[in-house]
Design goal:
Elements: H1 9-38, H2 43-55, E1 58-59, H3 60-67, H4 71-83, E2 87-91, E3 99-103, H5 105-126, H6 131-145
């Protein structure tokens, strides 16, 4: 038996916005990340390479915070990237308990090759929105992302 949730207006409005947000995010992700498998990368692997490409060497914890992944997941992703020769862990001289993750030449070459096409795909996909709408979307997403946990 099909049943429609009969919450209050505030809940129904929030649920409607949430469902649309999640569907849009999944749809855009699917369209703009399809090419990653052709490069032999998972979405998480790409995110690690992209973070290192733009931010430079980072600790595993910093990478996890940047790409919103758990420490266990990050360890596995970095293990796989290291096995493929795309990143290298180096012990932090200042704090020997930490490892800093660096792009290798192979990793740099790969992300340097695929990132421009990735950026172009995103620009093409978001072109359904005007420039002002893209700025508004960015602002709203940042506001939502920085909201305190409830």
């Amino acid at each position: 038996m099909q049943q429609k949730y009969r919450g209050n207006k505030k809940e129904l409005r929030a649920l409607k916005a949430y469902v649309k947000l999640m569907r849009a995010a999944e749809s855009v992700t699917r369209r703009t990340h399809r090419h990653l498998s052709e490069a032999g990368l998972t979405l998480s692997q790409f995110a690690v390479l992209e973070a290192l490409y733009h931010l430079g060497p980072l600790s595993q914890r910093e990478i996890g915070q940047k790409i919103l992944r758990s420490s266990g997941n990050i360890t596995m992703v970095i293990d796989n990237l290291e096995k493929n020769g795309r990143v290298k862990r180096k012990r932090n001289e200042a704090d020997r308990r930490l490892f800093i993750v660096h792009l290798t030449d192979k990793g740099y070459s790969l992300i340097n090759k695929i990132f421009p096409a990735h950026a172009a795909l995103i620009a093409k996909d978001l072109a359904v929105l005007t420039a002002d709408e893209q700025v508004a979307l960015e602002r709203l997403c940042k506001k939502l992302g920085l909201a305190p946990e409830t």
